[in-house]
Amino acid sequence: MEQYVIKGGAPLVGEVEIGGAKNAALAILAAATMTDDTVLIENVPDVRDTNVMIQAMESIGVRVERPDRHTVKVCAKVVRVHSIEDDYIKKIRGSYYLIGALLGKYNEAEVSLPGGCNIGSRPIDLHLKGFRALGADVRISHGLIIAKADKLTGGHIYLDKVSVGATINVMMAAVLAEGTTIIENAAKEPHVVDVANFLNRMGASVKGAGTDVIRIKGVQRLHGTDYAIIPDQIEAGTFMFAAAVTKGDVTVKNVIPKHLESISSKLVEIGCQVEESDEAVRVVATKRLGHTHVNTLPYPGFPTDMQPQITVALGLSNGTSIVTESIFENRFRYVDELVRMGANIKVEGSVAIIDGVEKYTGAGITAPDLRAGAALVLAGLAAEGFTTVDDIKYIERGYEDFDEKLRGIGAMIEKVNTEKEMQKFKFKVG
Ligand code: EPZ
Fold this sequence. Notes:
The chain is α/β, with parallel strands linked by helices. The chain folds into two domains: about 5-20 and about 230-430, UDP-n-acetylglucosamine1-carboxyvinyl-transferase, Chain, CATH 3.65.10; about 20-230, Alpha-beta prism (UDP-n-acetylglucosamine1-carboxyvinyl-transferase, Chain), CATH 3.65.10. The chain contains 14 helices and 24 strands. The protein has helices spanning about 20-30, 50-60, 95-105, 125-135, 165-175, 190-200, 235-245, 260-270, 305-315, 335-340, 370-380, 395, 400-410, 420-430; strands at about 5, 15, 40, 65-70, 70-75, 85, 110, 135-140, 145-150, 155-160, 180-185, 205, 215, 225-230, 250-255, 275, 280-285, 295, 320-325, 345-350, 350-355, 365, 385-390, 410-415. The strands form six sheets. The chain has a four-stranded mixed β-sheet with strand order 22-23-1-24, with helices on both faces. A four-stranded mixed β-sheet has the order 2-15-17-16. The protein has a four-stranded mixed β-sheet with strand order 4-5-3-14, with helices on one face. The protein binds ligand EPZ.
């Protein structure tokens, strides 16, 4: 079984290139099937989740080519079936975007209920409520979501909770509907805006993305386009925190600093220097981190996808911090692993109370999900001695070449498969 082995203690120093946003890519790939023309998408991250999405699209007849590692050409002129019951697709959350896309284009879709990281119950009621408001008949049967309509017509949808997935899914289904759709209490995440921009480039009429009211005027058809996906805000934030926990000096390049504001401001609050330039952010940490309180919130608040990374940092801070997880109810499962590394953290419901310790000590730990897995790697990089991280398949869902990028800024980390490879690494790093 593949695992990461890490020798901690080295400050990370240097520059790292950030890839395209995984969660934007999942939706944009699905949306690309809404036209019969060819669509060229650039800056697609080569990670497990996007590859599973591509495989699912191919399984229904969509032609996908990859002129290079990060460019994907999609042609959905010939789609054989509107039903996706693929074993893999159940494993990724973003599979639900195929419902919005297929329902929007063909007025019918059947897709396996989505899986994804185990971070809470993750209902999809709001997506279904949105499709129904557009006139679709939606039911769940034998593990499939089945949505059908004679025709979709614009509707007025109020999302009871701010949901990235529901906002994007309903927006996709509505672009080819007859009349105008209004989504209220919409999510404002950068990738919501990215998907709206992509749809508009294909000829849709979506206005207001990035605010809490989105207006979609249905159009007759969508056409082909070229599009480059925005940089991944969470990958960037993860490397920014890697600098913070290792007392390093890291410049994350190819980012949109505005998307990182809530992350940058927390880093400044806990004593790091953050310098922004046009397409890069440099994080310098020279002293022990300070404590703070964090509450995860929809954008522009502090992202839930950065909660484990900041908790790892605060676990090493000088004082007591409180982290409140407001989005998902089961996102502290990694804390037990961190405690094994010497952290002093108590979780009560959705709140973690953190008494900072001077150092972590390396241990054998397991990644429970994508972001928590990445955060535990950061803990290993900061820790004294060796750490092994199991179940790195979760990390590979959303981070491209994570170990390689970390090595590029001085981390002692290797992906190993056998005890022999592990010993070789230990011998090499001493
Ligand atoms: C997206 O999940 C991301 N996934 C998640 O990233 C991210 O954590 C999350 O947004 C929040 O930013 C993808 O884009 C594939 P939500 P999503 O709908 O869309 C509740 C990662 O690590 N809700 O915004 O599933 C829900 O339970 C992953 O990359 C309903 O009640 O999240 C949660 O409390 C993990 N009913 C809140 O809304 C619904 O129908 C926000 O969830 C939908 C959601």
